[in-house]
Amino acid sequence: MSDTRATILVTGGCGYIGTHTIVCLLQKDYDVVVADNLSNSSIVSLDRVAEIVGLSEHDRASRLVFHQVDICDEAAFRKVFESSPRFESCIHFAGLKAVGESTKKPLLYYDNNLSGTFVLLRMMDEFQCHSLVFSSSATVYGAAENMPITEDTPVGAGITNAYGRTKYMIEEILRDFYQSQTLEESTTDWSITILRYFNPVGSHPSGKIGEDPNGIPNNLMPYVAQVAIGRREHLTVFGSDYNTADGTGVRDYLHVMDLADGHLAAMDYMKQKKSGIFTFNLGTGNGYSVLDMVKAMGKACGHEIKYVVGNRRQGDIATCFADANLAKNEMGWVASRDLDEMCRDLWCWQTQNPNGFAGQPCESQ
Ligand code: NAD
Ligand code: WQD
């Protein structure tokens, strides 16, 4: 850690979005402390981050510090705060995110995602870090009726799973918490940004880091990538009878590097605003269907992606895409990478790491 560089705490920093964001943080000259229990990630991911950024062993020891810790464990997490310089900001990715699993194990999801946030807020308060970026999700909008979805679209109703409700509940908790900080004094120095991600896909263009799902992927693009590389026979398209142009579900896919940039934009915005609680959609504003994505990935990998049409998946909605103008107008953030770039970079990650981080080290490839 340096006397001149600011240090950012990244919870869940070994995961998919966390690693991409840490690349951006290090490249913008921040020091990073990662707190992750590795429940859904591999420590190899941070080795790859160091490779991408070109950190020497020496720099790595000081600029990218890792603590294997469950953030719900207050005593253990306190040690992270005690042993670090004061954090300028915290980006809070840590959470469980598998929609289907959350339906089977709701208590695990409420416990992990909510408790982790409670402990984090207590620690931040105690150790005087008053700037927080929270990973929320478009899932909080439930089955919104009007597209595109603005930040004013009602949230909470129509969420079909416990995972989505943890995001909604944490947003509400953050609002209550922020309000509580303004009660005693007329001003507060707390700033909180809630980022509602739409559908992040792709990987860093180096192909050294990317999404590494456990077992059978739940999400569309990791599944499509595994079909493309021959790990799976075919994709099952979940329904072709939706009220959309080609009958398949429409989503707002955004490149994970654009999403990563959004976190730095949020930190800059909070610095400029000094205090407040802010909510932004992060998406491209474009909707693409399942078949559009299959076609785009076929183009990136140079051969057709086999698919069969199956039944609708329970809880799915027909269409979901963002109005991302607020993030553009307020933070100056736009998602600039297109579908071809998303698929090209996903393919780069998939071909270099057919078995994810469990495969060979990337440096030798
Ligand atoms: P991920 O699973 O790859 O990363 C989350 C990380 O948090 C993992 O490394 C995991 O080990 C860690 N973690 C979980 N519980 C923890 C705990 N109690 N203590 C310490 N570490 C813990 O997920 P991701 O795709 O990188 O998502 C990051 C965040 O963004 C999550 O909160 C997720 O809900 C949210 N989000 C993701 C998407 C998406 O499509 N990927 C969309 C919207 C929101
Ligand atoms: C996209 C489209 C499917 C898989 C989920 C979570 C959401 C957020 C992002 C965290 C849909 C179709 C999918 C497959 C398919 N995560 N599909 N065959 O459902 O928009 O959002 O991930 O916050 O909370 O719900 O993304 O990638 O699962 O699906 O046809 O094998 O692809 O029906 O239309 P979704 P997804």
Automatic annotation (TrEMBL):
Pfam families linked: GDP_Man_Dehyd (PF16363)
EC number: 5.1.3.2
SUPFAM superfamilies found in the cross-reference section: NAD(P)-binding Rossmann-fold domains
Classification via InterPro entries: NAD(P)-bd_dom, NAD(P)-bd_dom_sf, UDP_G4E
NAD(P)-binding domain residues: 9-345
Functional pathway: Carbohydrate metabolism; galactose metabolism
GO biological process: galactose metabolic process
Keyword terms of this UniProt record: Carbohydrate metabolism, Isomerase, NAD
Coiled-coil ranges (or none): none
GO molecular function ontology, one term from the record: UDP-glucose 4-epimerase activity
Catalytic activity, as annotated: UDP-alpha-D-glucose = UDP-alpha-D-galactose
EC category: isomerase
GO cellular component, one term: cytosol
Claim: Isomerase is one of the keywords in the record: yes
Domain of life: Eukaryota
Cofactor(s) listed in the protein's UniProt record: NAD(+)
Similarity comment: family membership: Belongs to the NAD(P)-dependent epimerase/dehydratase family.
Subunit annotation: Homodimer.
Protein name: UDP-glucose 4-epimerase
Organism: Phaeodactylum tricornutum (strain CCAP 1055/1)
